[in-house]
Amino acid sequence: MKANDILLLGLKHKVTAIAKSDGHHIWSTEIRGGLISGGDFITLACDDSHVFAYSGGHLHCLELSSGQLLWTDELPGYGFGLASLCVPGYGAAPDNAALKQLIPQRDAEAVGAATTAAT
Fold first, then answer.
1. What pLDDT shows up at residue 82?
2. Which is the most buried residue in 6, 54, 105, 112, by most CB within 10 A?
3. Cβ–Cβ < 8 Å for 42, 35
């Protein structure tokens, strides 16, 4: 299966590869994060053969075709938080274009909620 045929989902300590054509799960790999909350959110980036996943202070590399965990870096000294990943030539995650779309939507929802609360 080619990289363009796969959708990657990172959620609750798992990375899952899903076939775009029919939605079946190709593989799912559990990854560990730190003890700090926030491990439910997984930042993902990939190239044609690897998936890079950050969760709870740990960076992981998985094989795109199988989900096999290739290595983990506990990133000593970096602490915890939301991480940005970028694979040169492939883009960044979270993607700036996606974030730009979410901000106006969030602001519109906040205005709508404020208007509703005022009436």
1. 80
2. 54
3. no
